[in-house]
Target: Polyhydroxyalkanoate synthase
Amino acid sequence: MAENQAPDVKLPDPVEMSRAMTRIAEQSQRLVTDFLSRQASDGVGAKNPDPMGVGHAFLEMTTRMMADPAKLMKAQMTLWQDYLTLWQRTTQRFFGQEAQPVIAPAKDDRRFKDSAWDENTLFDFIKQSYLLSARWMQSTVNEVDGLDDHTAKKVDFYTRQFVDAMAPSNFVMTNPEVLRKTIETGGENLVKGLEHLLTDLERGKGELRISMTDYDAFQVGKNIAVTPGKVVFQTSLMQLIQYTPTTAEVNKRPLMIVPPWINKYYILDLREKNSFIKWAVDQGHTVFVLSWVNPDEKLAQKGFEDYMVEGPLAALDAIEKVTGEKDVNAIGYCLGGTLLASTLAYMAAKKDDRIKSATFFTTMLDFTEAGELSVFIDEEQLTFIESQMAEQGYLDGSKMATTFNMLRANDLIWSFVVNNYLLGKDPFPFDLLYWNSDSTRMPAAMHSFYLRNMYQKNLLAQPGAVTLGGVPIDLRTVKTPSFFLSAREDHIAPWKSTYMGANLFTGPVKFVLAASGHIAGVVNPPAAEKYCYWTNAKLPKTSDEWLKSSEQTPGSWWPEWNKWVGKFSDGKVPARDPNKGGLPALEDAPGSYAKVRIV
Model:
């Protein structure tokens, strides 16, 4: 709150407060009892207390840090000098003088957007003290000599998690917005926030599943994933959806989209205004999408090879039966792109050229620089993940969601802690966050193969090192014309890594770089008039060379892609009705696989 500003004080209603606390007590007792019984049955005490190896990494870091006390002393002196300057300037402000801040938050740091962080001298001091400590802590651990690269990355990552968690915005007494709300409502915000917390614990069966949106505001097939179409084929791993045309004529060559199975396909079909699938249909494509199953323990032994055979290869056969067309243009998104590239290499070995063009959205093929996700990939952590999967037959979807949320903790964890639990507000209805919470499981065999062969050993980038269907595959044999779309701020598939993968193919490659991140960089409809993208007619050896000579264009990259893929359309034919194809329609889109929700 601004200085000299006295907000209206509301006294709490004792009757309502008593009722609320009774509800909370009853709910808490039920949760604690359930939690303790499950912990006992799981034998949690006998398990590894540090399965992620975080403690070992920090012990090694501390040992090496203490080996150079002069360097540590210098860092501490620098921090104390910064604090001394801050105290002096804060004192000047208390006496009514102007004083420049010692440190300021980044422009995109929304934790300190409330005006009181700048206008109120006390909160400004708290903010700057935190920023100075955070900078000192992260720079100190980053400058420790002698750590191997993986340990250094792990220490940096978990230090940042700690720093983000300790931000003053995350606590009642040091967040001016929360204090103001508490005074205005007589503490009702904290009572409501506690109810939200207990509801989220109950929803997660004892594990905290932070609500990011109003889950009752959306229903798959009702107001999200609503582009009209039919399921025309299915296997144990996927349903194939064919979408209803909106043009009199369509491209002769169908479009097959292979989404990731880490999340559901409808990230490409959220709402009419931002649906890539609807937009592609409107451009005259006959669009087929693979909707992956949400697997349970029955599919534990399904491997990466099974996803290829029952996924794109089965879809190619089905598309030919539906349309009479043998050839397709294909899109792969993230892990779906990794599968598509692997399938192309397999098909090249089999002299199968049914995919005439391939588009890759934020796809990693060379995992040399796998970004921050590599923090979670080492023998100790993989062994722990595999032990979890051995018990259930799959990796629970919430584990994957937590991992991805940690990559952007301030936006995807702490902002909701403040909003839901401290301010006591209900989460805002947001289609993207509903999709983000719609978790999918990973079959044990597939996920272990993927993590070990791609992330840990980077075998996919090596000729013949990965075998699928009895065939040692080599990405260098792929001559299919390809379009690589990457995102400049992607934390999941760093664009410089995806660029390395694009250089593995020997066919013609067009590389396009979009602004924003893993999702917003891809889901950027032209009508939104947002962001920009970069193109380059050449594909030099390094990503830095490519960017240096690239050309920037405002807006969406979608029309750029449509122009490129149009060269492989093979002419026009009358629109294809999914009800009148070579295979009978099984059910309406989005199909039953997409509607399975595990939380």
